[in-house]
């Protein structure tokens, strides 16, 4: 084996060894692998509500069960965990009002503001409200969720 080949193999070995050591030294937080969001909805409610959410293009502005590219999304609240922050009754009222901004004032431009779904059939609004209220966030993630929601609505960090 030539000297240059030994050097290259030595470098490769050092890189592999460094990667192995780094992976062993990383301290994993207890929640790193735990998804913070979950739903308590039945499969039928989830399927039917998601059909309505797709049909009404809610995910054009809101993230739900996905990560969105920050450059593509408007600062609309994410729907994951919204059921921890809002009740089914509140969500139904919000979907039923002719002026959603009267319930949650917004700093968004008019074209990005929440539209009214008051004309949606009552049973559909109830179904979507039921599903959204089933979207929970685990306790360990709740504080972060509230801070993110506050910033999206107000444009400033929440004071602790």
What's a concise summary of this model?
The chain is mostly helical. The chain folds into two domains: 30 residues; 121 residues, Cupredoxins -  blue copper proteins (Immunoglobulin-like, Sandwich), CATH 2.60.40.420. It is 51% helix and 4% strand.
**The named CATH superfamily of the largest domain:** Cupredoxins -  blue copper proteins
* Stretches with pLDDT under 50, minimum 5 residues: none
Q: How would you describe the shape?
A: elongated
Radius of gyration: 23 Å
- Strand line-up of the largest beta sheet: 1-2
- The percent of residues in helical segments reads 40-55%
Number of strands: 2
Give the helix tally. 7
What's the CATH architecture of the largest domain?
Sandwich
Q: Average pLDDT, to the nearest integer? A: 83
Whole-number tally of structural domains:
2
- Name the helix and strand elements from N-terminus to C-terminus, one letter apiece: HEHHHHHEH
Which CATH class of the largest domain applies here?
Answer: Mainly Beta
The proportion of strand residues reads under 5%
Provide an overview of this structure.
This protein is mainly alpha-helical. It folds into two domains: 30 residues; 121 residues, Cupredoxins -  blue copper proteins (Immunoglobulin-like). The chain has a two-stranded antiparallel sheet. α2 crosses α6 and α4 crosses α6. The longest helix has 23 residues. The mean pLDDT is 83.
Describe the structure using short key phrases.
two-stranded antiparallel sheet; 160 residues; elongated; Immunoglobulin-like; 2 domains; mainly alpha
